[in-house]
Amino acid sequence: MEVIPAIDLLEGRCVRLYQGDYAQAETFDENPGSVARQWADQGATRLHVVDLDGAKAGHPVNVSAIEAIVRAVDVPLQVGGGLRDRASAAALFKLGVQRVILGTVAVEQPDLVRELCQEFPEQIVVGIDARNGLVATRGWLETSQVTAIDLAQQMADFGIAAIIYTDIHRDGTLQGPNLDALRALANGVSVPIIASGGMSSVTDLLSLLALEPLGVTGAIVGRALYTGDIVLKEALRAVGQGRWQDVPPDFGSSALA
C-alpha cells in the first residue's frame, strides 16, 4: 500500500480544507517546497499536489509553487487542479511532473481524457470526487448527475493509470475512509484505486489493506500528517511501501509501540 502525502496549494501556501470548503482553509506552511522535502525525507515514494486555486479558476494558478516542489524533491509528483485542456497537462509534464490528475474534464470532456491517455500513456490519472455517490466538479463547487462507478468504468476503458477516489464528506474530517464506497468502486473496475479523504490514523490505513486484493493500491493522507495524528515513517512501515523499509523500527511511545 502506497502512502501518499498531500500538498494542497492555495495562493502559494500549503493548506487543508474541511470537506472541500474554501472558506475553511487552514494554513500549515507558507513554503510548499519545504513541506515536500519534509515528506520526501521521511520516505514518501510519491507526492499528491492539488492546485486549489486552479480547480476553482479552471486553469493552473499555482505553477510557481508546483515548480518549486519539483525542484525541491526527487520523488514523483502527481498534480491536479484546473487541468481542463491539453496545454495545461503538457506544461506540467514539461516542468517534471510525472502524472496529472483530471477531474472536471472526465465528466465534461471525456474525449479529451481518451486523447491524453493515448498521448501520455501511464501518466493520466482521473480524480473522482463524490458527494453522496455523485461526482462533484469545478473544485467541488458543482455536483453532476454522473455516478462515481459509471464514470470510473468509462475512464477505465480509456487506459488511465489510476483512479483517485475522494469521499468529499470525509475530506479533512479525520473520520476515516469510506470503505464501502471504495469496495464497490474497486469491484467495478480493473484499474488501481487510490483512496483519499478522512485518513485519521495508521489504523485507517491498515483497514485499507483488506481492499488491496481488489485493487486499492494507495492512500492519500493530508490533514492527519500535518496534525501529527499520522507519522509518515510509521505509516510506511506499517502498510508496506516507503524508502525507509531498511531502517529498524523505532516507534517509541506511539500507538504502534
Top keywords for this entry?
globular; 12 strands; TIM Barrel; eight-stranded parallel beta barrel; alpha/beta; single chain
Written account of the structure:
This protein has 257 residues and is of the alpha/beta class. The chain has a single domain, classed as TIM Barrel. An eight-stranded parallel β-barrel has the order 1-4-5-6-7-10-11-12, surrounded by seven helices. The protein is globular, with a radius of gyration of 17 Å.
Distance between the termini: 21 Å
Number of beta-strand segments: 12
Number of domains: 1
CATH architecture field: Alpha-Beta Barrel
User: Mean pLDDT, as a whole number?
Assistant: 89
How would you write the strand order of the largest sheet?
1-4-5-6-7-10-11-12
The CATH topology label is TIM Barrel
Global structural class: alpha/beta
Number of helical runs?
11
User: In oligomeric terms, what are we looking at?
Assistant: single chain
* Coarse shape: globular
Task: Output the CATH class name.
Answer: Alpha Beta
In CATH terms, the superfamily is Aldolase class I
